[in-house]
């Protein structure tokens, strides 16, 4: 009994360290990927977008309680950031924050893609099963791609701040209404709006192009980050009209979801996340069904 009491902690620690080492190794190895055959990029039409949204709504209806638990943190983070911006006297960053928050949406919906994948395959699709499946080879590439989106989000906020500084700055605002008045009634304010909207559009196009199918693809196949990004860009390039329509749907739905203090995102984000999985399934076909 004494030998087991002394030996077990040492053995247990060694096993845990070895397991962690293997996990880190799988995560790093997954970034490059093992999928050799390049997927086929398909044509998608507006009908495919409607079908993806319908399937996304069905997934949400079937998995509602688990899904809400999984995404509840996303609107909470958005609300906290908005309150912080207002209390810090950075009112001019409120609109860039709200407009730019969808930039990290594809990363926030990773668990939803896995739940849709499992439901489609007839596997248990509760939040616990979804999270447990996001380890090993999936963790590394998903974290790397998520970090990329976070960098883009931070760059957008810094760019928006620079536009404000070059137009209405350095004047600070304690009231959102006063800021809106100056934006609409002064030359500097109108310049800020034009530059901000144009620049925000470019950031949105970038994120839409790199995130349209890349995250679901990483969940589905061991493709690695480079192939996932290249395929997502190829889908956007081959389907400019459908991509633009999807972008407007996503942005419009997310912005509407933010209006009641970000609470609407608890419903909007799951439907869009599940729909993104189904859109990926229509946009990309792999020539080797047995792989992954």
TrEMBL record:
The keyword Cell division does not apply. The chain crosses the membrane at residues 67-87, 93-113, 134-156, 162-180, 192-219, 245-272. The keyword Transmembrane helix applies. Keywords: Membrane, Transmembrane, Transmembrane helix. This is DUF2189 domain-containing protein. It comes from Paracoccus acridae.
């Amino acid at each position: 009994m004494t030998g087991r009491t002394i030996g077990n902690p040492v053995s247990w620690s060694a096993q845990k360290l070895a397991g962690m080492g293997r996990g880190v190794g799988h995560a790093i190895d997954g970034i490059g990927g093992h999928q050799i055959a390049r997927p086929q990029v398909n044509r998608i039409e507006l009908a495919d977008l409607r079908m993806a949204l319908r399937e996304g709504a069905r997934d949400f209806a079937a998995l509602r309680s688990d899904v809400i638990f999984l995404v509840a943190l996303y609107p909470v983070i958005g609300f906290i950031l908005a309150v912080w911006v207002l209390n810090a006297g950075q009112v001019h960053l409120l609109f860039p924050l709200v407009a730019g928050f969808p930039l990290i949406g594809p990363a926030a919906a990773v668990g939803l893609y896995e739940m849709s994948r499992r439901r489609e395959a007839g596997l248990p699709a509760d939040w616990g099963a979804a999270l447990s499946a996001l380890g090993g080879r999936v963790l590394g590439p998903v974290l790397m791609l998520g970090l990329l989106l976070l960098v883009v989000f931070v760059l957008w906020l810094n760019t928006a701040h620079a536009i404000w500084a070059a137009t209405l700055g350095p004047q600070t605002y304690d009231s959102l209404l006063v800021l809106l008045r100056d934006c609409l009634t002064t030359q500097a304010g109108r310049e800020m709006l034009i530059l901000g909207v144009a620049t925000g559009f470019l950031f949105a196009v970038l994120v839409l192009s790199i995130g349209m199918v890349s995250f679901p693809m990483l969940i589905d196949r061991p493709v690695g980050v480079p192939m996932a990004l290249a395929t997502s860009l190829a889908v956007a390039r081959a389907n400019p009209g459908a991509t633009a329509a999807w972008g407007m749907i996503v942005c419009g739905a997310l912005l509407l979801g933010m209006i009641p203090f970000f609470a609407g995102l608890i419903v909007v984000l799951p439907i869009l996340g599940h729909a993104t999985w189904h859109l990926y399934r229509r946009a990309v076909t792999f020539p080797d069904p047995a792989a992954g």
